[in-house]
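Researcher: We are triaging several targets before committing to wet-lab work. For this one, the compound of interest is nicotinamide-adenine-dinucleotide. I'm pasting the protein sequence and the ligand SMILES. What I need is the predicted three-dimensional arrangement of the protein with the ligand bound, expressed as structure tokens, so it can go straight into our comparison scripts without reformatting.
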Amino acid sequence: MRLIVVGTGSMAENQVSHFKMIDGVEIVAAVDPDPTRLTQFAELFGIPKRFLSLEEAITWGEFDAATNITPDRMHHATSLALIKAGKHVFCEKPLAENHADAMEMTEAAEAAGIINMVNLTYRNVPQLQYARGMVLAGQLGTVRHVEASYLQSWLVSRAWGDWRTESRWLWRLSTEHGSNGVLGDVGIHILDFASYGAATDIDYVFSRMKAFDKAPEGKIGDYVLDANDSFTMSVGFSNGALGVIHASRWATGHLNELKLRIYGERGSLEIIHRPEESELRGCLGDDIETATWKVIEVPPVQTNYERFVEAVTTGRQADPSFRHAADLQKVIDLSIVSERERREFTLLPPVEIVPVHEKEAVAMELVSAGAEKPRKPRRRRWASRAVGQ
Ligand SMILES: NC(=O)c1ccc[n+]([C@@H]2O[C@H](COP(=O)([O-])OP(=O)(O)OC[C@H]3O[C@@H](n4cnc5c(N)ncnc54)[C@H](O)[C@@H]3O)[C@@H](O)[C@H]2O)c1
């Protein structure tokens, strides 16, 4: 498989070190508008062809697939260009800035028949895959309650560099630069971690989020620091369970930690994932009488990178797909509206259009949860009315 790398920033180094280890993968070109970065990166990994724009790479065309590791704001235009050129696309998360863009990418990819996957990295955690298998096998009984968190501390620590001076952190703090804050950045990971691990979907959401004061007048250079850096979310799942999901860049003492607890009628599971280790513990069977927790050993799993290569090679679409990421993007869009309007929303039909940012109207499914009973899923329709108007 001839693969090109689009965007050669810090995540590209991580991705390419994984892709290079997979048999049959040849990294044939790199693309980045920053010539210094492009050269450094291509030299580091011995990549022969270098392009300053994706258009040039597409005109050259001698590749099967692309990994899109551009900043969030670029995913939409760059992925659509690759799809139009008939190339398979592995796109970084979040798929897009909003659900409408994510759906446009999903529909274009599906119509073109190309392999489309999104790098929800924590699918690579074997403990998550094993926990999901246990839930699906009924080992926990009915799941009643879920707790999930994604904790980072890069706003208070310099362990990953200084966000005050580095553009790779500053764009993540600014909505004008295409960021939906911690919600769009790692929120998508923890939404996937929680719902995939508990083997259920999110149907209801109520969110609070906050961008704390961090710089004089809330700005550094061109970057207005208005994107949320903490969120808390109360959710209802399709299986009837309730859950709390939260994330913060202010979690002092936690560089990068994901935690998931799934409580069922017959047993519970806890996953803690940190860069240096992951652990799955369970309290099951007779142990629920004494609240005794035991470590559960798990076998290794295929990574997203391996699954993408296998999908391109076999022609069979694999998870997590663009469609799945678009569904999660809907939860993110609704969370932003929930914060603004301070009310709960459901992802069940009907579909309406709601302005997420003042300037734009974003297509999404939305109905006020209010006192209404949940409706049965039915054929989805599109309307152009903003809720509340
Ligand atoms: N899956 C994960 O766990 C994970 C972790 C970190 C980052 N990410 C995602 O990866 C993406 C990149 O993040 P990063 O930390 O590497 O950012 P970064 O700012 O370090 O790198 C982005 C690179 O893309 C280049 N670029 C910008 N526009 C481009 C274009 N049109 N064509 C080609 N290149 C372009 C920039 O010059 C830069 O070199 C983001 O979407 C981010 O959310 C995912």
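Researcher: Any quick observations?
Model: Residues 6-12, 31-34, 37, 54, 69-72, 74, 78, 92-93, 119, 121, 168, 185 surround nicotinamide-adenine-dinucleotide (CB under 6 Å).
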